[in-house]
Amino acid sequence: MRLGVLLAALLFTAGPLTAQMGDLSAHAPKSKSYVIYDAEPQVIRAGKRSVVEMRFRVVDGFHVNSHTPKSELLIPTKITLQPATGVKAEAAEYPAGTPFSFSFNPKETLDVYAGDFVVKLPVIASAGAHEIDGTMRYQACDHAACYPPKNLPVQLIFTAK
Amino acid sequence: MKRNALVLGVMIVGISLMLWAGWHNLRTRRIAMQQAEANHVTLIPGKAGEPGQMDQGEEAPPEDAGTRLKGKAAPGFTLTSLDGKKVSLADYKGRPVLVNFWATWCGPCKVEMPWFEELRKQYAAQGFEILGLASDIDVGKDTISKVAHQAGVTYPILLADDKVQTAYGGVDYLPMSFYVDRNGAVIEVTAGLGSKDEIEVNIKKAIASGMTATVKGGE
């Protein structure tokens, strides 16, 4: 009996909490930015090769070309970062894309990012707080149309300890 | 003893679930806030007869771009074609014209271009013409020409400048087509890829619209 009451109380409390997890796709059709950058501060080891992550989310209903699209005419997703004092950065590591075909042209398969994707940046940083500024260039499409290329500002914030 | 362990286990799972939900909620809110900031657009009313302007570097949402031109006179333009000739919309006065904005990186655009070519031939006797306005001129004439050739296009391809794109509502969504009747009025605007049948219906509308006025004018 006591166990049942406890379980009911937990479900009652957890329900509203999970319901609060917003729906990012709700405003997708009116979106002007088709990719969102989640600038979460990170902590890495000072003086050691570590990896900082750049987390992105493509707005529901859209996709962007991967870093290695299958045609030279397509615009790849590419991040350009500014040099930062105390940070030695290697080349960014992009995830593999997923195959995608437009319903009106199923024979042609594209290589795209949709939903969440993470770009990794190996760095060696001196102890302290660091910021790396940059931009991500991407070109988005939905199921029937494409949008001109955009530049998304990116700021990597991390502390090396 | 067993019962106490079970209660403890349930409590641990419950608290973990609540902590996870709280963290997830915080992260989602942060992303949503960034999205809201990114979507912020300030509309500045334009002068009478001119489209509204957006704040610095902003663009109109897709559903608004260009659609305000429907029922109005198609903005005039003079652009350079792939073979270096100056082509104006005014050159086609009295003819129904489809003004189609496209780009080499736009997959849906390249799907409809062969349809346009076919329909252009089909309705040529009624004076129908298509002007393809390439909006990514930075890739160069050769690339644009190659893509148009691959799509089997023989109608004029013009190099669109910023001025014409602004005049047609920013063209923030490709493909975008403006169906202009014989009187130079935009009678239909479409954004995104439609079916070939829909395109043909709009071409017929453009051909039919203004026909009476033209006949009367010619009497």
Low-confidence stretches of chain B: 31-62, 214-219
Helicity of chain B, as a percent range: 40-55%
The profile of the biggest β sheet of chain B is: 7 strands, mixed
Give the distance, in angstroms, between the N- and C-terminal Cα atoms of chain B.
Answer: 104 Å
> Taking all residues together, what is the mean pLDDT of chain A?
84
Q: Please, what is the average pLDDT of chain B?
A: 80
Write the layout of secondary structure elements.
The complex is a heterodimer of chains A (161) and B (219).
Chain A: H1 2-19, E1 35-38, E2 42-44, E3 49-58, E4 63-65, E5 78-81, E6 87-89, E7 98-100, E8 110-113, E9 116-125, E10 128-138, E11 140-141, E12 150-160
Parallel strand pairs in A: 2-12
Antiparallel strand pairs in A: 1-3, 3-9, 4-8, 4-11, 5-10, 6-9, 7-8, 10-12
Chain B: H1 2-38, E1 43-44, E2 53-54, E3 78-81, E4 86-88, E5 97-102, H2 107-122, E6 129-134, H3 141-150, E7 157-159, H4 162-167, E8 176-180, E9 186-191, H5 196-208, H6 211-218
Helix pairs in contact in B: 2-5
List keywords for this structure.
heterodimer, A: 161 residues, mainly beta, 4-stranded antiparallel sheet, 4-stranded mixed sheet, 11% helix, disordered N terminus, B: 219 residues, alpha+beta, 17% strand, elongated
Short description:
Chain A is mainly beta and 161 residues long. In chain A, 11% of the residues lie in helices and 42% in strands.
Provide structural commentary.
Chain A has 161 residues and is mainly beta. Helix content of chain A is 11%, strand content 42%. Chain A contains one helix and twelve strands, in the order H-E-E-E-E-E-E-E-E-E-E-E-E. The longest helix of chain A has 18 residues, at 2-19. Chain A is elongated, with a radius of gyration of 20 Å. With 219 residues, chain B is an alpha+beta fold. Chain B contains six helices and nine strands, in the order αβββββαβαβαββαα. Chain B has helices at residues 2-38, 107-122, 141-150, 162-167, 196-208, 211-218; strands at 43-44, 53-54, 78-81, 86-88, 97-102, 129-134, 157-159, 176-180, 186-191. A seven-stranded mixed beta sheet of chain B has the order 4-3-7-6-5-8-9, with helices on one face. In chain B, strands 1-2 form a two-stranded antiparallel sheet. In chain B, strand 8 (176-180) and strand 9 form a beta hairpin.
